[in-house]
Amino acid sequence: MSSGSVRGRLRKPEGKLKFFSLLGIRIKKGAWANSETENNFPANVCKPIIRNAATAVLYEEALAHEAGTALTASGALALNSGAKKGRSPNDKRIVDEPSSTGNIWWGPVNIKMSENSFMVNRERAVDYLNTRPRLYVFDGFAGWDPKYRIKVRVVCARAYHALFMKNMLIRPTAQELENFGEPDFTIFNSGEFPANRYTTGMTSTTSVALSFERREMNTRVIDYEDASLTENTRCAYPIEYIPNAKIPCVGSHPKNIILLTCDAFGVLPPVSKLTPAQVSYHFISGYTAKIAGTEEGVTEPQATFSSCFGAPFLVWHPTKYASMLAEKMKEHEASAWLINTGWNGGAYGTGKRISLKYSRAIIDAIHSGELDKVEFENYPVFNLSIPKTCTGVPSEVLNPSKSWMGTADSYTATTEKLAKLFIKNFAAYADKADHAVLQAGPSV
């Protein structure tokens, strides 16, 4: 890919701006002069804007301009992002406008925002970016399949943000970059600048605002200069760093769909074969569990339900995604499995974490077709179909009722407790789920 820089300034929009412009000039295709060359720019420009830079250039930029950035022994770029180190799911807002309002799952996950409030946030983001001494632009694709992928442009003020998005999105080839044109979506990342809490609809200094009509996203978070550390460490690397990665990452339709959970109550089986209705039920539920010590105030296992195993990222109602999954599975005759990598023999603190070698053996048996040929039995309450045998896994581990180390009463009580939590959680989706899916959950 080409890398280089130009000097310029973000431009406030007149109408629907869907591209990044510099003093009224669109970012050119191809390479600009190297960023080290300071005399190749028009007299009316005011700052370096580094576009689609090579990884080495972004390393150099981060090391030179971001305090606290360093190289690890392995060659990775390490830094402290500041006070905000995780997602802010309660701060995601979407503009409520006619063309998309009927398709959005409005509520705690997708909070309504007016066009005016979005534009206030957008203007503050652009104004902030214009105050930065240098800017970075990355153009990439979301989605590997050319038939469905969208073009995304990211504008940010920190080199590591550009590097992160370069890892997370699909990097265009030199030819694709030459013909990139205008993006389908533009992200303005002004993460160091706080949102105005007094803007209508805002409740904190964090804002992740999305407009489907304008095809733009603005992100703003306060206090990246905070020096505190956290266990919530994140890393990102190119897909090519995985030895057996298939490039491009496009393949045939899968024959086995695996839903992954971590049950800290110790009552979900390590593997269950799901019916089509159960796939939808457990996909919509998105169950996992927090364990004691992971968060302040958590002293015993707590059930956590995140629709489609990723509620903060959803726009449609969860049943829409579940229906799409069910249709694809039916069309391509795929099987589905619920895999629990959590606890066995008892809840967290009593039982043991399911051995990784057992989980690997189960996955291998699914892919080899072994589990399609063994005998199954019904697991009560959750009404799951579980295998009696699996190569490399003790038979008692496959059935939590047989591996439970406590009393029969404690096993029953724990199983029913988790089942009731499932039922309570799913009540929020009952009005849009069909009858078969409603009947696919646990019964107490």
UniProtKB/TrEMBL annotation:
GO molecular function annotations of the record? ATP binding; kinase activity; phosphoenolpyruvate carboxykinase (ATP) activity
Q: What is its EC number?
A: 4.1.1.49
Q: What class of enzyme is it?
A: lyase
Under the heading InterPro entries, the entry gives: PEP_carboxykinase_ATP, PEP_carboxykinase_C, PEP_carboxykinase_N
Q: Its pathway?
A: Carbohydrate biosynthesis; gluconeogenesis
Q: Which GO terms describe its cellular component?
A: cytosol
Sorted keywords for this record are: ATP-binding, Decarboxylase, Gluconeogenesis, Kinase, Lyase, Nucleotide-binding, Pyruvate, Transferase
| GO BP | gluconeogenesis
Which Pfam family name is an example for this entry?
PEPCK_ATP
Task: Spell out where the chain crosses the membrane.
Answer: none
What's the catalysed reaction?
A: oxaloacetate + ATP = phosphoenolpyruvate + ADP + CO2
Q: Which family does it belong to?
A: Belongs to the phosphoenolpyruvate carboxykinase (ATP) family.
List the protein's name: Phosphoenolpyruvate carboxykinase (ATP)
Origin species: Chytriomyces confervae
Primary gene name: PCK1C
